[in-house]
Write the structure tokens for this entry.
Amino acid sequence: MKYLLAIILWAIVPTAAWAADAGIATAHPLATTAAKETLAKGGNAFDAAITAAAALAVVELYGSGLGGGGFWLLHRAEDGFETMLDGRETAPAAATRDMYLDTTGEPIPNASLEGPLAAGIPGVPAALDYLASHYGKLPLRESLAPAIQLAREGFPVDKAMRRHLAFRQELLRKYPETSRILLPAGKLPDIGDTIRQPELAQTLELLAEKGRAGFYAGEFAEQMVAAVKAAGGIWSLDDLKNYRVKEREPIRGEYHGIKVTTAAPPSSGGIVLLEMLNMLSAYDLPKAAAAQRTHWQVETMRRAYRDRAEYLGDPDFVAIPTQRLLGADHAARLRASIQDDKATPSADLKPVAPGVSGRGMNTTHFSILDKDGNRVAATLSINYPFGSGFMPKGSGVLLNNEMDDFSIRPGTPNVYGLVGAEANAIEPGKRMLSSMTPTFLEDGKRIAILGTPGGSRIITMLLLGTQAFANGENASRIVNRRRFHHQYLPDSIQYEPEALDADTLFELESMGHSLSPQDDAWGNMQAVILDKQTGTVDAASDGRGIGQAATVAY
Ligand code: GLY
């Protein structure tokens, strides 16, 4: 009855008939400030999203950038239209299924992770152009201006930048153009030192002036392809020319009266999130003891991630049984296999012919709402921190290593442990399976714009975030909630320090769960929440990162 009321309220309460507050949450204060400036100049949420993505490409270049890809979930207030811009990278035309294997069929160490051979054809520059021309109000010249300034004049190294540089310095040193810019005089910069990227400023200017042609054609593209080839990559000018942004119908579902609008394939995020929510909707989680609740959550994670491994890939290349996976019958069948007091070993589930898929330790997410109710949830990535490490000379653009998100060889889980199958094998022009899950949640009272980086754990973070939203928690509590995770294989519960108390851990172990405590926290969730009745906004940036949330009252 409570849920029925929520659905009725959700249907009749207007959401954008008045000017409400605006809200922005990004992973870096300079990106939040830049996006806020764009809103102040009269730009809408879509323009502000361009500004935020470009600013993050400069100041958080280890997570995303022009050399990468991503997904932008959009809600247009004037007609309620919703879409997902798919700016995911594609495999070059010369890519082959076994390109990362040696003659004996063994994976070549780091081949899918380092250097230009690891890089898919970038989607971000095309997506920024597409967003401006189809949804924005401002020319790219204006929405890109803050990023161009940050790249040219520089910005101070912060603790997150310093930590990431230290973590990947060995890779960065292999590529002279990259180390010249990021490790001046061969040294790690100190916190507070200025990083300037004049070449990136020029590339952003080309994009501002010529739109996608500034990046995917002409002299710039020729130089980039020549540099990639000279360093062992396989890009061609046609790969760049043929790159297309795609609009995808978002994945939609409902959980306890909350409307869930989320990422479509080639992200696995939306389908896996809704499979978990569909299974969980039959349990009375608030009334359950912590161990029982966690057990049910983990068992649904296990089953949904198994389906991810078997069925999901680029929908333009593989037939995904979306309706079946999201149907009530499938949820009921999977739920029937869950025992209330006993873990199901992953090995007892129907086996998947395993392949490989990268988790990615990095990526970025931002959430933006403008005063008219336009919304953007964007999750963007170059995959592992600093991507492939390779920067074509003169471009200032770090290329992704997103090719590692494909299954590079059936049967061998990679360093991150996610398994895949035939559906995610490498093919020319195909988009690699992702876990990025930009999401909108809406109930009778509130609308949330939510997402996070975090590789394979992104989807379970969104699960926990959705459940926190269902419990009425505010933005700060949602993004700062302690996290646990299960992904089918490896068959163990990973959990952040203090995520689960000693009694819960004891009971979970007694049920047969294997426990895998993690030293480090994970994720960097950004949330913007609109109160539909008052028009006020609550926004928060995950305390695990250095990001910033801002609200603007109108
Ligand atoms: N590269 C991380 C992801 O797309 O899931």
Observations:
- Residues 290-311 form the longest helix (22 residues).
